[in-house]
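Chapter review: from sequence to fold.
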Amino acid sequence: MHDGSRAEPVLVAYGITTLGSPVLLAVEPGGDESYDAWAGFLADLRARGLRPPLLVVTDGAAGLIGAVDTTRACARRQRCLVHRARNVLAKVPAGRRDEPKAAFWAIFDLPEDIEPGQEAVRTAQAGIDGFARRYERELPAAVRCSLTDRQALTAHLRLPAQHWRRIRHTNLIERTFGETRRRVKVIGRLPGEASCLTLVWAVLDRASGGWRGLTYTPAIARALTEVRHQLHQPAHTADEPTTQAVTRAA
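The token string follows.
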């Protein structure tokens, strides 16, 4: 991004409004993925008028998690389950991963009759305990990983069940990063910060045109309003959609 410098991250956030529409929120330079870099990024979103989101979905970057917990304490934080599954399976021998992988995902594939909220969270947390008991002798490192930051693994279960499979990971934005890297690789070295951000924004903006939104019905609208009440935030009217935000670094 800058002449003579090492590779630098680009910080990215997208949101899903309570009307179900995905939207690209921000693309900014970051010298690193530190707490200060992410805190400034999130502060800028707030200064631009982003209302407190109901849910923030992140990967496991410590700086990002710290910034979210500090500056977005009123929102629930969801740890990307895809990243966590990779973390867990990285501690399992390559030839033994199929069974633990299936067992991990079974924790979060809840029965259809489970109601969103505390019941769903309690059921999934019990599943995490069951996973730990099942593998504590055979795969202790994988078990320790599965138990780390465990409350953030089930935050999505407090929102409408129709949204669970879409808001439990950062895959929506991750898929666009491959295209971004491909474009940058062809160029080689970018002449400066402005050209870098222009390219990244253009690629992500084009990709966002094909994003599929979330189901939105009057019942889901009422459920989201109830979640906001639970977070002690004022409810928004239908013409003032709030946002579920996902942040990652490209």
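Two observations follow directly from the output. The chain has ten helices and five strands. The mean pLDDT is 86.
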